[in-house]
Design brief:
It holds the Pfam family Helicase_C. By secondary structure, the protein is of the alpha/beta class. About 35% of the residues lie in helices and about 15% in strands. It folds into 2 domains: about 10-265, 3-Layer(aba) Sandwich (Rossmann fold), CATH 3.40.50; about 270-445, Rossmann fold (3-Layer(aba) Sandwich), CATH 3.40.50.300. The longest helix has 14 residues, at about 140-150. Bound molecules: adenosine-5'-diphosphate and magnesium ion (MG). Magnesium ion (MG) binds near residues 111 and 206.
Length: about 450
């Protein structure tokens, strides 16, 4: 092991590789060279043994009573121990008689995995018809969830399928035991009798607050729920449940078991939040280009306000030789799938997007999130939940992450301060004029 001068290299020594991904350092204190400090590193196993961590569990997956086939699936995915939400929620979710659940836990702590395990465990294996429906707010998230279902159920005979735009042509039927999709398409296929709901006994909304808070998604989700004849178990999961949505959620899932977090517990410790001052829109763009080298150290997502600006920035960056992609809701399904698959494969490293990707997307190599524009609601006020979800695209399951807000006006600066106060978490300043310093700060963490 060498001294503090090159500790950015040795910090990554002997960290296990899981699924081809280096499990990254979770707690990082920048070393104070004068004091001869050493880098502090905590590994995933240590973190899962720390009762204060959301990844902690006192139990093993065996103790949660999973079938041997599912255990085999989990181990093949390199899951060694449950996280806190998995340990707490799962036994409640599979208890009999079934009870509804409204579950909250920080981003990247295994909520989606809990949902999937629940659906897989609840099925009556002899019934070869849809028994569980899981809705997600975006095509990208639905595709990701079906992948998790298929990975976890690899050693079982359970059937599952994705029902989103362009997946179920007229005349075909969705007959798999688990159905994952988006509300619009699922509503259509139920109405057209391409999907029978007679046996559906589990109904899940991932990113539930977002689903219920957005007019059309909320209406469609409730309508689907009302089409289910069997009085299903209703499971609502998210990292955030603002008060007004929680009331709505409680009506949709009456008498639910609830697991909730306080606001100050919401932000993930391993995500370091920064801001950089920019003195104009042009300077903001230049700053983004200047940090391009940092953005490509691993992978990153840049969030913009509008589709138009995401495209514009992507085009400008491409014209300067940078390898970036942009994804938003007006693109065709094929384009979206293709782009997302390429990003997951690491074919390009910077993805410029809108809120469509702010929820649930899990790509372990994303270590940097840039808020090119802050997320605002219809009244132009900061959308705290969207901010938290955006930065939660990094720092997944014990990995470190960095988020940067590009502040280009007094107003944005004020909004950045509001975010700090809201989550009781400091957002540190990084100078825009000293690039060596910027690099040192970021590369030390990523
Ligand atoms: P959330 O829905 O809370 O944001 P996910 O369920 O997407 O979190 O999980 C985040 C990441 O952690 C995913 O890559 C998932 O495969 C992984 N993961 C989830 N649970 C475990 C576990 N118990 N052990 C190891 N990895 C896990
Ligand atoms: Mg999730």
């Amino acid at each position: 092991m060498s001294g503090p001068s090159n500790n950015f290299e040795w910090i990554f020594d002997d960290i296990p590789i899981i699924n081809g991904t280096q499990i990254s350092v979770i707690a990082y204190e920048p070393p104070d060279e004068k004091k001869g400090d050493l880098v502090v590193q905590v590994k995933l196993a240590d973190l899962q043994a720390d009762p204060n961590s959301p990844l902690y569990s006192a139990k093993t997956f065996e103790q949660l009573g999973l079938s041997p086939e599912l255990l085999k699936g989990l181990y093949a995915m390199s899951f060694t121990k449950p996280s806190k939400i998995q340990e707490r929620a799962f036994p409640l979710l599979i208890s009999d008689p079934p009870k509804n659940m409204i579950g909250q836990s920080q981003s990247g702590t295994g909520k989606t995995a809990t949902i999937v395990l629940t659906m897989l465990t609840r099925l009556n294996l002899s019934v070869k018809a849809p028994q569980a429906i899981c809705l997600a707010p975006s095509r990208e998230l639905a595709r990701q969830i079906i992948d998790v279902v298929q990975d976890m159920s690899k050693f079982t005979y359970i059937t599952s399928e994705l029902v989103v735009k362009n997946t179920l042509p007229y005349g075909k039927y969705a007959q798999s035991q688990i159905i994952v999709g988006t509300p619009g398409k699922i509503t259509d296929v139920i109405k057209r009798k391409q999907l029978s709901v007679n046996d559906v006994k589990v109904f899940v909304l991932d990113e539930a607050d977002n689903m219920l808070d957005r007019d059309c998604l909320g209406d469609q989700s409730v309508r689907i729920r009302n089409m289910l004849t069997k009085d299903p178990q209703i499971v609502l999961f998210s990292a955030t449940f603002p008060e007004h949505v929680r009331k709505f959620a409680a009506r949709l899932a009456p008498n639910a078991n609830e697991i909730s977090l306080k606001r100050e517990e919401l932000s993930v410790k391993a995500i370091k939040q920064f801001y950089m001052d920019c003195n104009s829109e042009e300077h903001k763009y230049e700053t983004l280009c200047n940090i391009y080298d940092l953005l490509t150290v691993s992978q990153s997502i840049v969030f913009c306000k509008r589709r138009g600006s995401a495209d514009k920035i992507a085009q400008l960056m491409k014209s300067q030789g940078h390898l970036v992609g942009s994804l938003h809701g007006t693109m065709s399904s094929e384009e979206r799938d293709h782009l997302m698959d390429d990003f997951r494969r690491g074919i390009f490293k910077v993805l410029i997007s809108t809120n469509v990707l702010s929820r649930g997307i899990d790509i372990s190599l994303v270590s940097l999130v840039v808020n090119y524009d802050l997320p605002l609601d219809v009244l132009d006020q900061v959308d705290f939940e969207a901010y938290l979800h955006r930065i939660g695209r990094t720092g997944r399951f014990g990995r470190t992450g960095v988020s940067i807000i590009l502040v280009d006006s007094k107003n944005t600066w004020r909004q950045m301060r509001q975010i700090e106060r809201h989550f009781c978490k400091e957002i540190e300043h990084v100078p825009t004029e000293d690039w060596q310093q910027v690099e040192k700060i970021f590369k030390g963490i990523i």
